[in-house]
Request: fold
Amino acid sequence: MTTKSPSSVLSDAKRSSLNARLAMLRNAVSAERSRASCLRRWSEFVRERDGFRCVDCHSQERLSAHHICRKTFLGAAQFDTGNGITLCRTCHREAHAGFNGRPDMSLPVDAQGGEKLASMERLYSILLDDAIERGRMCEEYYFLSDEVLGFLKVLQGFDPKTYFPGSRLERAYLILAEPELQMRQAIAGANGFSFGDQPLLPGGVMIVFDDEKDRSQSSILQARWGRL
Reply:
């Protein structure tokens, strides 16, 4: 295992190679080639974009391109470059721990233990950090369709048209970092206040109760959410 960090500057040669990989992926999808062929092109692009090392632990051994949102759960995201992250065998196995079959969409999200929204949030977070630190942040390199982003919003209880700022990758992270809307409203209602139906987002208002005082005495704090 190695922890050597790749250069934060994308050279012209590397950019050209990465763009060629992206073009091959797009051509395969637009030509409606076999699913296996498109997935192979997608995997090749994701692994090269991520510097041929695990984005989580930086190992360079036994690498795979992992779908953050499972392709059996959301087929529309299976070729989106922003839905891919390079993981080593160990990290990939951890990501797929639990139920890994075709989900029953009539059940609540993650009722079968396969979606793991907290894990998806974490993977989008470290992929976003990696893109910024390595100078790879580009919508084409980390693309997520409006359909995919809308689906993630619905998972969290928001209207598909709810506004989230930032790049598409940043939006995916922010959507999943939000407390689920109905749960948030229930907790707020039980304590006599409301956040409305808009996302809190970084810099939003949080209400913090001091356990040592009467719960009716709440303090309103401005809080900036940071990625963990």
Remarks:
- Residues 184 and 195 are 8 Å apart (CA to CA).
- The first strand starts at residue 63 and ends at 67.
- The chain has two domains: 12-145, 183-228.
- Helices lie at 12-30, 35-49, 89-95, 117-133, 146-155, 168-177, 181-190.
